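pipeline: protein-struct stage 2 | run 1193 | procollagen-lysine 5-dioxygenase
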Amino acid sequence: MNLSNLTPDLKLKLLSMLSSASSSSSATSSSSATSSSSSSHHTCSSLSLPPHHTIISKQDKKFILSVIDTIQEQGYFIKDEFQSNDLTQQTKDQIIEMKSSLHQAGMGEEGSTKYINPELRGDLFKWISEQQVEENTPLRKTLTNLNRIRHVLNYVFNLQLDRNSIQIAFYSNGARYIRHADATPLQSPDRRLTFLLYFNDESSIDGGSLQLYRKERSFDNEYRTPYEYQLKENSDNQVIVKPLFNRLLAFSSEHYHEVLPSLSDRFSLTMWMYGHVDVWQRIREYTRSKIFVSICSYRDSELQHTIKDMFEKAYYPDRLRVGICLQVHESDSINDKFDYRNQSYSHQIKEIIMNYKSSKGPCYARFLIQKYLYQQEEYYLQIDSHMRFDDGWDLTLIKQLHQCEEEEESRNNHTTLKKSKLAKCILSTYPVGYELPNKIPEHAKPTIMVAKSFTKDDHGFEMLRLGARVIMQSLHQPVKSIFFAAGFAFSRGRLVLECPYEELPYLFFGEEMYMLEKFHCKSYQIYSPCEPIIYHLWSRDHRKTLWQDQQEDSNRLTLSWKSFVENHFKPLTKTSVVSIDSDLYETIDDVEQIQLIKQHSQNMVQLKLKMNNNDQPIITTCVESTQQHAPSSFFEYCGIDFTQRIIEEKAQRGGLSQHYTLI
């Protein structure tokens, strides 16, 4: 390529374009992506994810969240004292010993467009890989520390960064590298993140800073990268980062930057991380998508603590939108220890407040929440009012749901159907229990729901009884299961639109099988989480139940319920109290009438499941399902013959093979 006939301005512009369009087989010093005389020896380290026994600590997660949140907020991340100063100094000494093996860096792609121009890029460099460096050396330990960042990123955000490339760079005597990007849409598009570690004492630094620029490219879409954040350190929307000893710098590989002339010796180590997933689109979905949390609560003093723990344990609590159907007696002290109605997040909570005598069971409460409070948030979490949460539960649920969807898409990648139609998943199980007030078991194993037996209630209604078994193996992603837990289910928000709750008044025993049949007809697949995320209080000693109140014939109210809500709740709350149809305030005191209504709901369940020989199964809800694919019948899916009351081994194991040890 002959550049001699071009004007200096055009030459500089062309060279800058060539540098930013360097191929994936090339790399940069400091933070660039170009070729050199030795680029043919460049290899990307394709390292596996951490061994299964590797523990990702809370400190690891906190660091990664800091990296990602800071890059999203300001476009870059800086961590001083990345590792021990002794290790960094020893690593620098080892790199200096390798100086004689460094090569002059070039620009452009390998072949006819490759060229060397030290005035535009003047560093010396060398490609290395973690495997090529001798074990137990300082450099190997530093590379392991850097590569651990990739492992934790994959663990927290499921970014699928499957490989890296590493480069040592040396600048001196005024060497620089003009403005460029490490990745472009045409070249190295799978290069996602750039991490630089510097080795230069502040007293000896003379130039060599890295200058970052705001985005200027029109091809960036809404989710492409965090370029839209203005860098405000100076009036030109630029930021200058000094290459200080043991300083780690991270930014998107699509971020334009340049290395300013370095008059002193300047050493750096760069690691680029690669993957086929659009990193920033996924991160934004994981961190910014709203989660609607549906909670039906019947005279439960644990509701206040459930809400408190839920907001405190979420990594991104601002994204939560909570809908509560609160069924209470005037004398109940539901906020005696913690008033969730007057917190900084109270505006994120909406409530339907009902006289407990107007309660018609959990299905009716969930129906009201979905109908009046759900606002088409991206994700939907349905829980009970007595729960505790793991740290970062919101991020973990989204990550695991995505893993389920990816597995479903992989199972169906040979079909002609759209993946979005197939990847319908629900994370659900009977959670591990906790003890009051906040005792969560350590080292708890995941659980899977199983079929236990057919049993009858006091009125002769027969239904399948479900339970949970503990999976003894360590799991690394959710496992495909069969059954649905109404007290813990997480999905995309479209589930509410496709399979909404029906009123089904006074139904409790049978709710989960009724809903499971609806989900199956709409091609939803149930998965069990690979680790405990949310915990459930299985003891009922702290609260009353609807069935107890009905039997005890509690004292009648002496105050108009509407008046009670208007005078006692609304003036004292920052939450939104939703007033709806006046029928909510009507009560049914006739126990026999309640039982008749309950039997009607139970008959609906038995009819849907064809539990009697003369029943005709309801098939109208499965029309869409048969158009999408040809699934086995619901009964084959469950491993249960509802008519003959036969439970197969498949159902007793929750769909898991003998490979899994269950207790």
